[in-house]
Amino acid sequence: MPSLTFSSQYLPGVTVIAVAGRADITTACLLDDYISRTRRHPGDHLVLDLSEVPYLGESALHVLLHAHTVARHHGAGLHLASLQRGPAHLLHATESASGLNVHDTLEAAIRAALRAAQPVPVSGQAAG
């Protein structure tokens, strides 16, 4: 039976999930469930390391777009890292890449998510 494997780590305001395997119609529900269970707070930024995902189907793309929508609703973002050729092609073919935060490396995605997770200083307040 096809399956995906996952691992995760937590950083301040960021949940990082590594995904491995084919993300298709038979495994998209596993991806959705893992994202839902793993994210500690709805406002946490989410980084998905897709370097070990050779295939991304439309069902899995819908899961990513839903995760992106949920993150945006809570003031956070979804960051996709290290896409292989097939998943990258699907994102570009469906014009989904333009609305998502796609990064060449996991490190770049984590840096961007950590920057975005930092509180914005309120102007006019004196430094303490």
Report on this model:
It is a single chain. This protein is α/β, with parallel strands linked by helices and 128 residues long. It has one domain: 2-Layer Sandwich (Transcription Regulator spoIIAA). It is built from four helices and five strands; from the N terminus they run ββαβαβαβα. It has a five-stranded mixed β-sheet, sandwiched between helices. α2 links the parallel β3 and β4. The longest helix is centred in the middle third of the chain and has 16 residues, at 58-73.
Write the layout of secondary structure elements.
Layout: E1 5-11, E2 14-20, H1 28-38, E3 45-52, H2 58-73, E4 78-81, H3 85-93, E5 101-103, H4 106-117
Parallel strand pairs: 2-3, 3-4, 4-5
Antiparallel strand pairs: 1-2
| Rg calc | 15 Å
CATH class, named Alpha Beta
What's the story with the biggest beta sheet? 5 strands, mixed
- Stretches with pLDDT under 50, minimum 5 residues: none
Mean pLDDT: 91
What proportion of the residues form beta strands (DSSP E)?
15-25%
Number of strands: 5
Please, how many domains? 1
CATH-level-2 architecture: 2-Layer Sandwich
Can you summarize this structure?
The protein is of the alpha/beta class. 38% of the residues lie in helices and 23% in strands.
Q: Which terms summarize this structure?
A:
single chain, 128 residues, alpha/beta, 5-stranded mixed beta sheet, 4 helices, 5 strands, globular
